Amino acid sequence: MSFGTLPNALVVIAVVVVVLARRLSWSELENSDTDVWRGPLILVGVGVYQLYDRHGGLGAVEVVLLVVGAVIALLAGVGCGRVAQVERRAGKVFFRLGMPGLGIMVAYLAIRLGLAGLGHLLGASVAGGGALMVSMGANLLTQSLIIQSKARQMAEEYTNQ
Fold first, then answer.
1. Each residue of 2-11: pLDDT tens digit?
2. What is the largest CA-CA distance in the chain?
3. Torsion from C-alpha of 91, 156, 40, 13, nearest 10 degrees
4. Is 143 in contact with 131 (CB distance < 8 Å)?
């Protein structure tokens, strides 16, 4: 690991720790689109910037790794969103991933890091932090959309009673 990739790795690790801590504890879901889109889009934006700041073009191996990483991120996001716990308390909606969600996130991160390692072995230039940030942003966006959908369905059921 070179000096230039160390800060990038530390940023990715910090983001993962903060995201896991926040998603495992009960958080109020503010039913606004900005709450759903803001954080994940910032992660995707930073990741895309890192990818294109350091790399001129993408070869076949890089494209395959990015697509596989995105598919894994989306599948894990769907899984986490579906197992997330959503509760209504005093007219407000709260959510958390819980233990099943933690298991899916840990498996996702292990697979994604393995994919990054495979990319380094294959000589891919996009195997590191930028690709991980894009993948994590896509995962969180998918989770958030499904959790918001569950919350809306819950609110609908609550008002129809």
1. 444 667 667 7
2. 60
3. 60
4. no
The tally of CA atoms less than 13 A away on the side-chain side of residue 124 is 24
Distance CA 35, CA 118 (A): 34
Q: What is the pLDDT of residues 10-51, one digit of tens each?
A: 777 787 888 888 888 898 877 666 667 888 888 888 888 877
Which token pair is 119? 């990319």
Question: How many residues appear in the chain?
Answer: 161
Instruction: State the Cα–Cα distance between residues 148 and 62, nearest whole angstrom.
Output: 33
CA distance 33 to 12: 25
Residue range 97-126: average pLDDT?
88
Helices (H) and strands (E) in the chain, counts: 5, 3
> Under DSSP, is residue 159 helix (H, G, I), strand (E, B) or coil?
helix
What is the rounded average pLDDT of the residues 111-135? Answer: 82
The number of beta carbons lying within 10 Å of the beta carbon of residue 127 is: 22
